[in-house]
Design brief:
heterodimer, A: alpha+beta, two-stranded parallel ribbon, 4 helices, about 30% strand, globular, B: alpha+beta, 4-stranded antiparallel beta sheet, 15 helices
C-alpha cells in the first residue's frame, strides 16, 4: 500500500479518525476505497464510549482536516 | 449503520482499527424489504404511480437496430412479451422476421445482450454477457432461392469487443482482454488470425480476416509499431482496417498526443500534442496521410469539424460548423474516404446533417409517417439508398422505420416504448432567459396536458454535473413522470452545461450556489412572468449536482420555492476533496478544483456554499434521499445533512435506499423513490392527485386499469431490471 495515500497525521490528546477502509471483493481481485464517514464514527463512539467523545476532540487525520467536525463542535448541545 | 469506526488513533498511542468490509454488491433485492413494505401500504394512487413508473422504466421494446450493408434487412434486439429479449433479423421486402437468439437459454439461464454489428450481408456479430463473462458470437444467415430461411450460430470467444466491423471487406477489428475460446479450428476461422497489433495490460488490438485465416497468419506487424500501440486509447483505421492513427494520454492526464503511421517512412509521426482541456478528436485521415479531419475547439469557441495539416501542424480549414452549438460527432462512410454526417444538439434536439443533404429527403416519403415529428437518420445502406429512421422528442417515446429513398416507401420496424402512448404525455417548449452578467440561458419547459383550466404547479429540475452535462428535449422518464401527474417541469441548461461552447463551459466553474443558481432562477422568473405556471406552487428537485442545487436553493430562495428535494445530492463541498480517487488518479484533484473551487485557498467559500453548513437558514420543507452504495457522492453527504436538519428541527423527510448507487438499478427502487417524491410535492403544495382521465388517453383507460390490478399484490416479477440493459 502506498504510504502517501493511506498516511494520517496523529495529534496528541485528540481522537484521530483516518476514514473507513472498504475492501470490495470481485472474484480474484479486490478494490479498495477510503471514505470519510465521520458521522458514522460519531454514532459509534456515542454508543460505545461517550466518555471518550466527551473528553477528547474528534479530528479527521488526513489531508487538511474536516471543517464539518469543527462546525459540529460549535452547535452547543449538538451531536458532538 | 456500520458500527465500527475506521482508522482511529487516541492520544499518542495509535489505535488502528481497520474496517475490512467484504461486500459483494448486495443483490437488488436489498431494496425489496423496503419495497414490500411500501407495496403493502399502496393506495390506489400509489398503484397508479407504480404503473406509470413501471411503464417509464421497463426495458425498451426494441433497441440497437442496424441495417445490413445492402439495406435489405435490419437486425435488432426486441422484447415482445415484456420479459425476454431476443436478437431478431427482419427482411423488409420478404416481410420475414427470424429469431436468431433468445435471452433465455434452453437450460433456463439468462444472458444479457450488449450490442450487435453487421459484419457483411449474411453475418451478424453480437456481444452478450453471461455469468459475468463477455462473449462474442456470430449468426450466419442462410438463404434458399434468395429467401431468408435460417441461421447458424458460432461462438467466437470471451472478452472480445468489436471496434470496427469493416462491412465492405472480410476483416474486422476487435479488442480482446482474455484468452480466446477456440471451439474448433474449422468452425471458427475468425479467431485463427494472428494478433498483429500491440497490447497493454488489459487488452489487445487485433484485426482478423473472416475468410482466410491462413493468409492473415502470414502477416507480421513490426515490433516498433506494436510498441507505440501500448496504452493507446483511441485509434483510426483506413479502408483496409489497418491502424493509421492512435491517441495516447500521459499518466497525469495533462497531455494528449496523437500519432499517425507513415507508410513511406515506416514509422509513427507525432501529429500534435495538446492539453487535456483542448478538444482534438480525430475523425478521418486523408488518403495521402497528409491531413486529418478533427472535431476541435482549439481555434473557436464552439467545437467544429476542421482540417488539420500534419506537416505544418496547423488548422487549415473549417469543414463544418453550427452557429450556437458544438459539433459533437462526425461519421465517415465504411470505406473511410469521406465524411457522411455531422451531429450536434440544437433547440434541445439531436440533429444529424448529412453532407449530401440526405435529411431533407425525410420530408418526401410517400406516406405521412414523419409529418410533424422529429425524425432523423441513424443508419444507411452502403449504396445510401435505404435508411433507418428514428423519431424522438419530449412527447414521442420513439419509433424505428426503414425508408427506401428510391421509391419513397417506409416500413415500420417497431416502437421503442409503445405502451407510453397510453398516457397523456407532456410536450416541451424552449424558454430563453438572461441571467447575471448577461448570460443567455436556454431551458426546456414541459407542460402537462391535464392542466386545462388552471395553471399547473412547477417542478424546477436542474441537471447533474454541473460541467459538460446538459438536458435535451428528447423523451425523459423523470420529466414525463411529473408531467403525466400534472406538473410543469423546467430544465435549465445553466452555465457549465455542454454543447454551448467552451466559454459557456468555463463560466460555470466555481459557481456552485452562485451564478449557476442565478441562471436557474432567471429561467423560473421568465416562466412566472409569462404566466405559464402557478407562481405559488413551485418546488425544486434534482439528482447529484441537481440535488445540491435544490438544497442550496432552499437557503437562497425560500420566497420562490415551496419545497426542495434531493437525491444523491452533494451537501458538503470540502468533503468532495476527501474522495479517495483524488489521491489515486493523477490530475483528477486539479479537475475537481477547477469545477468546485480550491480548498487550500478558499475553504471559507466552500463552507459558505455547502448546504450542510447553512442548514439553519433553510426556510422550506426538504426531501432528502440517497443510496447506501453511491460511490460518486458518498452517503456521508446524506448523513451530514440529516444530522444538521434534525439538529435544527427543520421540516424534512428522509429516504435512504439500501443497495442503490448514484442512480437506481431496479424498477422497485424507482417506484419507492418516485412515489415518496410525488407524495412530498403534493403534501407541501396542497395538490390533489389527478383524476384517471387526466393521466390516461381515453382509449387506454381500461387497459391501464387492468395493468394496475395486476400490480396489486404482485410483489415481484422477472422484469424488475431497468430499461438500460
Amino acid at each position: 500500500m502506498d504510504k502517501d495515500v493511506f498516511g494520517m497525521r496523529v495529534e496528541a490528546g485528540k481522537i484521530n479518525y483516518g476514514g473507513h477502509l472498504f475492501v470490495d471483493n470481485h472474484w480474484s481481485r479486490a478494490s479498495i476505497r477510503m471514505v470519510n464517514r465521520a458521522t458514522e464514527t460519531i454514532d459509534h463512539l456515542a454508543d460505545c464510549c461517550q466518555n471518550l467523545l466527551d473528553e477528547h476532540q474528534l479530528v479527521y487525520a488526513r489531508g487538511g482536516g474536516d471543517p464539518f467536525l469543527d462546525y459540529l463542535s460549535t452547535l452547543g448541545d449538538g451531536p458532538l | 449503520m456500520i458500527n465500527s469506526p475506521g482508522l482511529l488513533a487516541v492520544g499518542s498511542r495509535i489505535l488502528v482499527l481497520l474496517l475490512l468490509s467484504y461486500f459483494p454488491h448486495p443483490a437488488h433485492g436489498a431494496s425489496t424489504a423496503e419495497g414490500v413494505e411500501i407495496k403493502a401500504e399502496l393506495q390506489d394512487e400509489d398503484l397508479t404511480r407504480a404503473d406509470l413508473v413501471t411503464s417509464l422504466f421497463r426495458r425498451h421494446n426494441i433497441r440497437d437496430a442496424h441495417l445490413s450493408p445492402d439495406g435489405s434487412m435490419a437486425a435488432y434486439f426486441d422484447m415482445p412479451n415484456g420479459i425476454d429479449r431476443r436478437l431478431v433479423v427482419l427482411h423488409h421486402e420478404q416481410k420475414r422476421r427470424l429469431i436468431l437468439r433468445q435471452e433465455r437459454d434452453a437450460d433456463g439461464s439468462r444472458l444479457r445482450f450488449v450490442k450487435l454489428h453487421w459484419i457483411d450481408n449474411t453475418r451478424i456479430a453480437y456481444q452478450y454477457e453471461k455469468d459475468d463473462v463477455n462473449i462474442l458470437a456470430v449468426s450466419t444467415l442462410q438463404f434458399e432461392d434468395g429467401k431468408l430461411i435460417d441461421a447458424f450460430l458460432h461462438y467466437l470467444g470471451s472478452g472480445i469487443e468489436i471496434i470496427d466491423p469493416l462491412p465492405h471487406i472480410d476483416r474486422l477489428v476487435v479488442l480482446y482482454g482474455e484468452e480466446i475460446y477456440k471451439p474448433g479450428e474449422r468452425q471458427s476461422p475468425i479467431i485463427r488470425s494472428l494478433d498483429y497489433a500491440g497490447k497493454s495490460d488489459s487488452w489487445r488490438l487485433r484485426i482478423v480476416d473472416v475468410t482466410d485465416p491462413f493468409e492473415s497468419e502470414k502477416f507480421e506487424w513490426p515490433d516498433h509499431m506494436k510498441r507505440k500501440l501500448e496504452d493507446s486509447h483511441a485509434w483510426l483505421f483506413d479502408t483496409r482496417g489497418d491502424v493509421r492513427l492512435i491517441v495516447k494520454r500521459n499518466k497525469k492526464h495533462e497531455l494528449v498526443t496523437t500519432w499517425s503511421w507513415s507508410r513511406q517512412k515506416r514509422k509513427w509521426l507525432n501529429v500534435w500534442e495538446h492539453s487535456f482541456d483542448v478538444e482534438f478528436r480525430p475523425i478521418m485521415l486523408s488518403g495521402d496521410g497528409k491531413s486529418l479531419l478533427v472535431i476541435t475547439d482549439f481555434k473557436s469557441d464552439y467545437s467544429v469539424l476542421a482540417r488539420f495539416d500534419i506537416d505544418t501542424k496547423s488548422f487549415v480549414e473549417t469543414i463544418y460548423s453550427v452557429p450556437g452549438a458544438d459539433v459533437n460527432s462526425a461519421i465517415t462512410n465504411p470505406e473511410k474516404t469521406r465524411i457522411v454526417r455531422v451531429g450536434y444538439v440544437k433547440d434541445g434536439l439531436v440533429r444529424f446533417d448529412y453532407l449530401d443533404g440526405l435529411e431533407t429527403l425525410l420530408d418526401k416519403p410517400l406516406d405521412s409517417t414523419f409529418a410533424g415529428r422529429n425524425a432523423y437518420v441513424v443508419d444507411r445502406s452502403m449504396d445510401e439508398q435505404i435508411v433507418l429512421v428514428r423519431t424522438s422528442d419530449t412527447s414521442d417515446p420513439g419509433e424505428i422505420h426503414v425508408l427506401n429513398l428510391e421509391n419513397g416507401r417506409s416500413y415500420a420496424v417497431g416502437a421503442i416504448r409503445p405502451w407510453m402512448n397510453d398516457y397523456k404525455l407532456g410536450s416541451s417548449q424552449i424558454v430563453l432567459s438572461t441571467s447575471t452578467s448577461g448570460a443567455e440561458i436556454e431551458s426546456y419547459l414541459t407542460m402537462p396536458r391535464s392542466a386545462a383550466n388552471r395553471l399547473p404547479p412547477l417542478i424546477v429540475m436542474p441537471h447533474g454535473g454541473p460541467k459538460w452535462v446538459r438536458d435535451s428535449r428528447h423523451f425523459d422518464e423523470y420529466t414525463q413522470y411529473l408531467a403525466v401527474l400534472g406538473y410543469a417541469v423546467l430544465q435549465p441548461n445553466y452555465r457549465g452545461s455542454g454543447g454551448y461552447g467552451k466559454s459557456f463551459l468555463k463560466m460555470g466553474e466555481g459557481q456552485w450556489g452562485r451564478l449557476i443558481e442565478d441562471d436557474i432562477e432567471s429561467a423560473v422568473q421568465v416562466v412566472i412572468d409569462r404566466k405559464l405556471v402557478d407562481h405559488d406552487k413551485i418546488c425544486i428537485f434534482g439528482t447529484s449536482y441537481g440535488g445540491y442545487s435544490a438544497l442550496i436553493s432552499a437557503v437562497r430562495r425560500p420566497d420562490l420555492y415551496k419545497c426542495a428535494a434531493s437525491f444523491a445530492g452533494v451537501t458538503d463541498l470540502p468533503l468532495l476533496f476527501h474522495d479517495f480517487q483524488l489521491s489515486l488518479v493523477e490530475g483528477l484533484r486539479e479537475i475537481v478544483i477547477e469545477i468546485v473551487g480550491d480548498p487550500e485557498t478558499d475553504i471559507e467559500t466552500l463552507v459558505r456554499y455547502s448546504p450542510a453548513f447553512v442548514a439553519d437558514q433553510i426556510g422550506i420543507p426538504v426531501f432528502l434521499s440517497h443510496g447506501t452504495d453511491d460511490f460518486r457522492v458518498d452517503v456521508e453527504h446524506y448523513n451530514r445533512m440529516k444530522l444538521v436538519l434534525e439538529h435544527f428541527g427543520k421540516d424534512a423527510e428522509y429516504l435512504l435506499i439500501p443497495g442503490a448507487g448514484h442512480g437506481f438499478d431496479t424498477i422497485d427502487e424507482e417506484v419507492i423513490f418516485l412515489t415518496k417524491l410525488d407524495r412530498f410535492f403534493r403534501n407541501k403544495m396542497s395538490i390533489p392527485f389527478p383524476q384517471t382521465e387526466s393521466v390516461y388517453e381515453p382509449a387506454a383507460v381500461k387497459r391501464r386499469l387492468a395493468e394496475i390490478e395486476k400490480l396489486r399484490g404482485n410483489g415481484d416479477d422477472e422484469n424488475n431490471a431497468r430499461q438500460a440493459d
